[in-house]
Amino acid sequence: MNDSGPLPPPYSPEWVRLPEPYVHAVARRLASRGMDVADYWNDPMDPRDVTVIVRRHDGDRLRFVWDEESGWRYGPMDPEGWVPLDRIRYLPGGLLPPPGQVADMVGRVLAGSLTGAADRPVYRSFRDYGDGFDARLAAYAPVGTDSGD
Question: What SS3 state is found at 102?
Fold first, then answer.
């Protein structure tokens, strides 16, 4: 984890990339537990969010999305790659659960023992600059060795 240097100003290139180390850590943890991570990426704007596509054993794909306001949600992807809004479910765990906890939840979703909630939680607004959240995200940036898991 990284604990050095000042935080980048909102909307700078460095700021919009702050979630990247977190999604990398989550994807690595999922893969290390044998889950088929088909793809993952950072989407940098309003709110910042990340997407992880996980393929089930039957070939169906689930889209797991984290955003800086509501934490993790997921849903089954249709053939075009979209998730019908009525199928989205929000996972427990708060706004920024550690990658291992995310992997636990994804594993439970895949096993059918966790479905999540239909109601969207709102933990903060993406406009809440200076609330300490960016420092929490920045902590996932590796220093030297890759220790953000």
Answer: helix
